[in-house]
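Appendix B. Raw example, untouched.
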Amino acid sequence: MKSGRAFWQRTHQIHTVLLVIAVFVAGFIIGSQIMVGEAAEQPREAAIGETDEAFEPFWEAFNAIQDLYIDKVEVPTLVDGAISGMIDALGDQYSGYMNPEIYPLFDADLSGDIEGIGVVIRTLEETGQIQVVNVLKGTPAMEAGVQPGDIFLEVDGESVIGLNQTELAARVRGPSGTTVNITFLRGEETYNVDIVRARIEIPNIETDILEGDIAYISMAEFNALAYGQLRDALEELDVNNRRALIFDLRGNPGGFLRTAIDIASGFIEEGIILTEEFGNGETQVFEATGNYFGIEVPIVVLVDERSASASELVAGAMQDRGVATLIGERTFGKGTVQT
């Protein structure tokens, strides 16, 4: 969780982010779905060294700011800054702090549907501006006339220049039925539009029957709805009456650990799916859940350098258990689980 803007910009650059503003920040994170509060309640050993003594400089700095700084700074602002700095000190690209404003966005994004306007975005590396790259069909953004190539300038009268995608999402998204006013740049002209937000199901599964009677399924992320979506897609394609199945995980950055286990179990009838090792030396073994799809035709899994986390878990398990052949490029190489 690297702190602040630099963390989010770096992670977005790594996996060529296309967020639905709507926006899903599914990141290449594979969450174990342990809530922050639950994690905090887990028993922990006393910190090495005298914690009170180690924190004396912190309290000195805190008190100095409270007593001497010319402007009043809210305590939560200082606490967020302190936590961000502490996490930043880990030097871990997969660790970062999400403040109370950002966390609900991340949590909602992996639920499979969100409340927003329905555009896919990216950050232009040359300018740092955030551009629309796709407008989802039937969404408020399409009805309002938003087009690919439009650049965000203002949201509800406030400039969004310099914001990262997550910060922009926090301003654009909101409860279904509410209105957001957005100013866009299109070419050399600006335009302003009111858009009524709506609940939008994030497109996650694409299917096709390819030449040679081969079933094709691509999955965008391992969100909370993915297992059911994949099961339904397999039934609609009548996979066992096709010659083969291609399961495309290229560009899939990951998602929930529980979803990854469920989906791997759909292809692996029994046995170990994953062994997770914790920092305290403990391990947890995840075995097939019994939610087997019963696929009898040959399976090929497609991967690339943007296939990360849950994608690597599922593809690796399928390869190791001999149920699929992997084709593509070396994957991202994450191999860690975050809570």
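End of appendix B.
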